[in-house]
Design goal:
The chain has a domain of 96 residues: Nucleotidyltransferase, domain 5 (2-Layer Sandwich), CATH 3.30.420. The radius of gyration is 15 Å and the shape is globular. By secondary structure, it is α/β, with parallel strands linked by helices. Helices cover 26% and strands 20% of the residues. It starts with 11 loop residues before the first strand and ends in a 15-residue tail after the last helix. Strand 4, helix 2 and strand 5 form a beta-alpha-beta unit.
Length: 144
């Protein structure tokens, strides 16, 4: 992927839960219900399977944001593969995700849970200014 900024807003959002032998992914486009979570092998064939499943959505890799928790070193191979395929990959700290989840009024944990609708634009404030933007492997651009 080139180092140019992505200028169009993301059209698909993908969340990935990483484990040693597998990973589970679910995705949603703005205004549409989320997909059913799917589990893939933590292998090149599993990475290809995820890319094929995402291709069926019709969203281009450059218009897709993939978020992975930095769990041990299990995330590295998948993140690198997706980055080389042109996806915007963001690695987040699991402790921050956990603390954010604790701040919500909902207390039960379910990995399959995803919001029923995604915001049409990124949150305002410090995220938009870039001061608190999570690290991206690729340059996610000014659309975020």
């Amino acid at each position: 992927m080139s180092s140019a900024h992505r200028t169009a807003p993301a059209q698909l959002f993908v969340g990935v839960d990483i484990a040693a032998a597998t990973f589970t992914a679910a995705w949603a486009a703005p205004g549409l219900p989320p997909s059913t979570p799917r589990t893939f092998d933590q292998s090149p064939s599993g990475f290809s399977g995820l890319q094929q499943a995402l291709a069926v959505t019709g969203g281009a890799p450059t218009a897709t944001v993939v978020v992975l928790e930095a769990t041990g070193s299990y995330w590295v191979a998948l993140a690198t593969t997706l980055h080389h395929a042109g996806y915007c990959v963001s690695i987040v700290n699991p402790a921050q995700v956990h603390n954010y989840a604790r701040s919500l009024p909902r207390r039960s944990k379910t990995d399959a849970w995803m919001p029923s609708s995604w915001p049409s634009s990124p949150p305002s404030g410090s995220l938009r200014s870039g001061r608190r933007r999570p690290p991206c492997i690729t340059n996610c651009g000014s659309a975020w």
